[in-house]
Design goal:
Elements (H helix, E strand, L loop, with lengths): L1 E6 L5 E3 L5 E2 L3 E6 L8 E3 L2 E5 L13 E6 L4 E8 L11 E9 L4 E4 L3 E2 L8 E7 L15 E5 L4 E4 L5
Parallel strand pairs: 7-12
Antiparallel strand pairs: 1-4, 2-3, 2-5, 6-7, 8-9, 9-10, 9-11, 10-14, 12-13
Length: about 160
């Protein structure tokens, strides 16, 4: 089963499931089985995904960062205890992410804030979504691993052949 989908002209778009890149400003015909809807991600996006958890109090590590290149991107990860209202009194953290297309660099900034029970160190799995490398999947194989201790760090996307 297929479906015709219009992709806005403001950007190029990636198929969420396959990673195939499409030019915006046109209709495309894509697979649309009953088990999933067509879903596209704009180039210049950072999409974080954590492991499957059952309860808000479980730790979400590692975090997979899906980077959809083509334009600069930014995202801020917000975390708190997840089980109370302590965030109202400043008990939360934020971690900024910036992707620079010109240098092909993902920068993870200094963590701001703190809360009881937070992970002081964590792992970020970086997946560069580029064509045949595949889209978003719970079984994605990261291209790079970043061990993060709350201090600014960065990694550069390797050229594809």
């Amino acid at each position: 089963m297929t479906r015709k989908v219009y992709l806005p002209a403001e950007s190029n778009w990636f198929d969420f499931y396959t990673g195939k890149k499409y030019e915006g400003g046109r209709d495309v015909t894509v697979d649309a089985p009953l088990s999933r809807i067509p879903l596209f991600v704009k180039e210049g996006s950072i999409l974080p995904a954590g492991p499957e958890i059952q309860f808000a109090s479980e730790k979400s590590d590692p975090v997979t960062l899906y980077i959809f290149p083509g334009k600069n991107a930014s995202f801020t990860l917000y975390e708190d205890e997840g089980v109370n209202y302590n965030y109202e009194s400043g008990k939360f953290t934020t971690i900024p992410y910036l992707y620079d297309e010109a240098t092909r660099t993902l920068s993870i900034g200094d963590r701001v804030g703190a809360f009881e029970g937070m992970l002081n160190e964590r792992t970020f799995e970086v997946v560069w979504v580029e064509g045949e490398s595949g889209g978003v999947s719970l079984k994605a194989h990261p291209h790079q691993l970043i061990r993060y201790n709350g201090k600014k760090t960065s990694t550069t996307r390797k050229p594809t052949n």
